[in-house]
Amino acid sequence: MDKDIYYYLNIDYPFTVRPDTDDGGYIVEFPDLRYCVGTGDTAEEAIKDAMLAKSEWIRASFEAGIKIPEPASNDEYNGRISLRIPKSLHKAVVETAKKEGVSANQFLSHLISMGIGKKTV
Fold first, then answer.
1. Are residues 43 and 24 in contact, defined by beta-carbon separation less than 8 angstroms?
2. What is the pLDDT of residues 4-21, one digit of tens each?
């Protein structure tokens, strides 16, 4: 059975948020959607831009008859981590995320991606 465009528009594609070291601000990329990116001065703006770009990318691909990939799945890496932290740290994360205008999950994802991005291989 062929999937309609709404199927793809409603998939939660994983994305990464990283600082734009060349121009400032942030870049959001979808590993499963080649060349689909969003940018913004803040992480929140970049995520909003990326969600719009994802929608347009899917619509253009669907209309052109280009195969739209589904997110790579790996049961070992499902994108969920259960983490226990002190209440004071939890409070700091939630309050900082609110100030940035993003969810605590988006904020933590951003911090982790920044830390991994600094790692030298």
1. no
2. 999 999 998 988 898 988
CATH label of the domain that carries residue 35: 3.30.160.250
Residue 61's SS3 state is helix
Q: How many CB atoms sit inside 10 A of residue 47's CB? A: 22
The dihedral formed by the CA atoms of 51, 9, 32 and 47, expressed in degrees to the nearest 10 = 10
Number of domains present in the structure of the chain = 1
Percent of the residues in the chain that have a pLDDT greater than 70, as a whole number: 89
Hey, how many other C-beta atoms are within 10 angstroms of the C-beta on 27? Answer: 20
Show the domain range for 100.
5-72+81-118
CA–CA gap between residue 30 and residue 106 (Å, rounded): 14
| Measured distance CA(5)–CA(3) in Å, rounded | 7
